[in-house]
Amino acid sequence: MATLSFDDIAYAMENTVVLHEPDRLIDTFGTTNFQFHLLTEPMDSAGKVRVREGRMEAERPRILKPEGYEELLFEGFGEQASVFAEWFRRNGNLHFFKYGFNFAKRGFTEEIVHESLEAVRDRLLEDIRVSGSPSRALICGIDDSWEVSLIKFTMEMIGRSLQINAFDLKRRGLL
Question: How far apart are CA 88 and CA 65, in angstroms?
């Protein structure tokens, strides 16, 4: 696979659509598993859809406090790093969450289906609805940069989960 350019990544981010989000969010105090179905249309084939399926694991969010991330956040700032670090220490209530995702190859499959994208999409959406599984996602992405489509999905899951994760941590006195 060729190295992706910034334009390739931007194109994939703009053109990836999460057609069905999991009903569940990222657990605040445990590991969360998601099953994904990623649909792409191969560039060199009409009337075909590549269906990739697999599992992603979201680790519980970790809190990064100001005293613990000087090197992480301020690398490359040169002389200003110590000034930024001091400012963060003085303004104390700033916390960041670190989310970790693992793409598990053990549950990964890939197949070419000789149907329209719409037909495959509709069949999978119905299957998700009937199964009632709260951890399934359906994503439509770009074939050559399908991993970027998974990154967009993870970013959206983090965005959906962040507020409830922060609430849970505050409720337990951890923030």
Answer: 9
